[in-house]
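re: ur question from earlier - yeah i can do the single chain one, its not a big deal. heres the input i used so u can compare w yours
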Amino acid sequence: MNKVAIDCEMVGDINNHAMLAYVALVDTNLGCIYKTFVQPKNSVHYFRNTGITSSQLASGKTFSQVQNEVQRLIAGKLLIGHSVSVDLQALGIRHPESQIRDIADRYKVDGKSLSLKILARDKLGEDIQTGNFHDPEEDAKAAMKIYKRYPW
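and the output i got, formated as tokens:
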């Protein structure tokens, strides 16, 4: 089965409810097959230290475009990521549980998921998320590398 890793970044509306802002998908060779900003459905009040700007969001694709494109790109593939259910919820799409490999669920300490930053350091010896914001492509690549090194 083909594999793809996903990561999404969110911003918050007036009540700080999550809204999709930035999406990336990478293939097993760590090539970025999809990366886009997403026009928010509502006014953004919380940028959540994402580093994302209003102009980047305004230049993005519509939510429905992104939703349809991501659904098409992940269909029939093993979906890998960190807290995949959060990304899928933000996208408003479903994916068969049997085709999801969530490293946040796989690696826990005392019942709590380890951050992707910690997992990348511990499992790969790599430092990620070193800047002021998370790059979904970097995060998706880290998730894919961890899965490839320790598949299940």
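Residues 7 and 139 are 6 Å apart (CA to CA). not sure if urs matches, ping me
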